[in-house]
Amino acid sequence: MAIGTIDKGVFTDIANAIRVQNGGTERYRPAEMASAVLALDGTKEGAPYQAATTAGIGVISDSVFTEIADAIRAQNGLAETYTPAEMAPAILALTWDVGIKMRAILLTDGTLEFNYRDGRSSDVPGAVIVDAWEVDAAGYSTASARPWDDVKLDVKRVVLDDDFSAGGLENASYFFTGFTELVEIRGFEQMQGVSNFNQAFTSCSSLETIYATE
Length: 214
What we know:
By secondary structure, the protein is an alpha/beta fold. It has helices spanning 8-22, 33-38, 62-76, 84-92; strands spanning 3-7, 57-61, 100-107, 111-118, 129-134, 157-160, 184-186, 209-211.
């Protein structure tokens, strides 16, 4: 890769941004910064150390910036390109879905997984999360009001994890309406206590199995 000169303050800003996001005091070499960005998860450990920006010029391979930019894109899911000066603001802009809540999580294999826990995670082995949405316990008055409505044609399987029933879902109306590629639902016992399933399965033309252990 090409090697060029860069203002040292750019790296100070990137390191400071990483420490703001993780609440840490660790110092980072340029080659360590991409890994540090990938490790960010929204958890802040304490009061972040903020190094003073000092003037100076250094020589660095542009592969370092390529790796940092790739790490930022892996975190925010965007396809943006970043100049070195834009990387610290991009790191500071990163946000995470944290807190205990009901979520609908879309996986790369076409599974829509429902769970209730702190942060985004999946119980499906080898799962890669594509997107996630908070589930409103009060339910939805139309199919289009579901936050996952735009991906309804991508869903082939629904999995309700063992913790989902603890979320207090009251209304499952329109939950799966128009899921024309949906073949099976597993863990349906987690819907115990839900009082309304109005049109929950309308236009699920491929649905073969709704499985519950009880």
